Amino acid sequence: MRVNGLTKGFFILIVFIVTLAFFDVLSPYYSAILWAAILAVIFNPVKNKIRTRLGERNGLAALMTIVIICLIVFTPLAIILSSLAYELNLVYSKLQHNDTQFPTVVASLFAHLPGWARSFLADHNLDSAQQIQQQLSDAALKGGQYLAGSAFLIGKGTFGFTVSFGIMLYLLFFLLKDGPYLVLLILESLPLSSYVKQHLFAKFAAVARATVKGTVAVALAQGALGGFAFWIAGLDGSILWGALMAFLSLIPAVGSAIMLGASGHLPLRHRPNCGRAPLSSASL
């Protein structure tokens, strides 16, 4: 059998090579494509309600849905990131001027350690707050030098993120606008029965909605509870630690428990009531 003068096997080989090249071109944008598809699945009911209110104006409904997504997802994220940057600057300033309770915390911690642990820390020059601060300062200096030397890579990464974000919004618009038609084309191209195809897509949509909504809701709840508990306990940088808790809760299995060490130093400073607040929020 010949297809446009080529044998069938050679034609299949060409299609395979072109497909690999196509996926290689798309490889830098896999995450943008995936998140566009997930957001389209999650917010498609919202778009349908807006379209009904606008008199079946599908394009305008998709555009308004993207505006809503930016308002309820990206705007709060930008506010949190700006607050996080302020908290990081505040913590850095206090560390730079030695305006912290770090020496007291370290002294209390060492007093409760067994002898073998104190000997181990002494062998590695970590038996005093001054030595620990010096090593942290050296590490921060090296990190700053590395970041300064990697300015081009950081700029490249920022540009790549901006491009990926734009691609995600562009693709999200068309997935919201023409999503049902595109899904129908994909399902028709699959060599499966109609029941299996419909069931497969329904399962994918349900799992995507449940996974994203559940993970994000749990992360936000843990971060909000933890930040509020740290604020009640009187810790500096409560927004910073709350955001860190929200991020760490996305790590499977162990993420939520990583912050327990941060609240453990409160009872060591003879403030057991303050120590209970973060620990209670972590338990919740």
UniProtKB/TrEMBL annotation:
Q: Where in the cell is it found?
A: Membrane
Q: How does it sit in the membrane?
A: Multi-pass membrane protein
Keywords of the record, alphabetical order, are: Membrane, Transmembrane, Transmembrane helix
Q: Where would you find the membrane-spanning parts of this chain?
A: 5-23, 29-46, 58-81, 151-173, 216-233, 239-262
Q: Name one GO cellular component term.
A: membrane
Q: Does the keyword Membrane apply?
A: yes
Q: Sorted alphabetically, which Pfam families does this protein's record hold?
A: AI-2E_transport (PF01594)
The UniProt similarity line reads: Belongs to the autoinducer-2 exporter (AI-2E) (TC 2.A.86) family.
Q: What is this protein called?
A: Membrane protein
